[in-house]
């Protein structure tokens, strides 16, 4: 059976809560002026209530995830993200629609993805690509994509900003 934790990994757009007002401490700011860049996301523990629920997800089921963002694994925190995901097609595989916001020193970036996820945890994708749908401040008018790759306790996020 699919566990809630496994689904949350796919929703790490950092995937979505949405942006909370917290101060960022940055060693080297990440901004649109940096062009394409890579960050590492590490999930922030959330409310694990219902973790034992082993029923198959139904259309309309929703969950959220949040990550801290780093320029290097184990380095200084440079941002945070949050993603909200909803199961839009139940079954095996199922489709999950996720929308997320990345809060960085130069502003915010938004992204979305429709993920196809098998119920068998061992068969899930280790990589996926999300569309950058916009941004604020330094990221105003942003487009492009983010490549997500599992990387140990982290998820590698390669931001490819469009021209």
Report on this structure.
The chain is mainly beta and 163 residues long. The chain has one helix and eight strands, in the order αββββββββ. The chain is globular and about 40 Å long.
Q: Topology of this structure?
A:
Layout: H1 4-10, E1 37-43, E2 62-70, E3 77-89, E4 94-104, E5 107-117, E6 127-135, E7 144-151, E8 154-161
Antiparallel strand pairs: 1-2, 1-8, 2-3, 3-4, 4-5, 5-6, 6-7, 7-8
Note the main sheet: 8 strands, antiparallel, barrel
Strand content: over 45%
Helix/sheet category: mainly beta
Instruction: Determine the mean pLDDT.
Output: 80
Distance between the termini: 42 Å
Helix proportion: under 10%
The strand count comes to 8
Helix segment count?
1
Q: If you compute it from the alpha carbons, what radius of gyration comes out, rounded to the nearest whole angstrom? A: 15 Å
Query: Biggest sheet, strands in spatial order?
Result: 1-2-3-4-5-6-7-8
Shape: globular
Low-confidence stretches: 1-29
Q: What are the secondary-structure elements, in order, as H or E?
A: HEEEEEEEE
Keywords:
163 residues; mainly beta; eight-stranded antiparallel β-barrel; 1 helix; 8 strands; disordered N terminus
Gist of the model:
This protein has 163 residues and is mainly β. Helix content is 4%, strand content 47%. The longest helix is centred in the N-terminal third of the chain and has 7 residues, at 4-10.
């Amino acid at each position: 059976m699919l566990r809630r934790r496994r689904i949350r990994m796919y929703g790490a757009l950092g995937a979505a809560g949405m942006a909370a007002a917290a101060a960022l401490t940055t060693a080297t700011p990440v901004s649109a002026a940096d062009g394409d860049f890579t960050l590492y996301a590490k999930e922030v523990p959330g409310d694990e209530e219902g973790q034992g629920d082993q029923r198959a997800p139904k259309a309309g089921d929703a969950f959220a995830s949040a990550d801290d963002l780093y320029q290097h694994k184990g380095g200084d925190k440079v941002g945070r993200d949050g993603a909200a995901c909803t199961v839009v097609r139940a079954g095996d595989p199922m489709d999950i629609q996720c929308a997320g916001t990345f809060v960085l020193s130069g502003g915010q970036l938004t992204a979305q993805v429709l993920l196809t996820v098998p119920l068998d945890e061992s068969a899930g994708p280790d990589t996926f690509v999300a569309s950058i749908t916009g941004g604020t401040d330094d990221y105003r008018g942003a487009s492009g994509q983010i490549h997500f790759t599992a990387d140990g306790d982290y998820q590698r996020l390669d931001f490819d900003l469009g021209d």
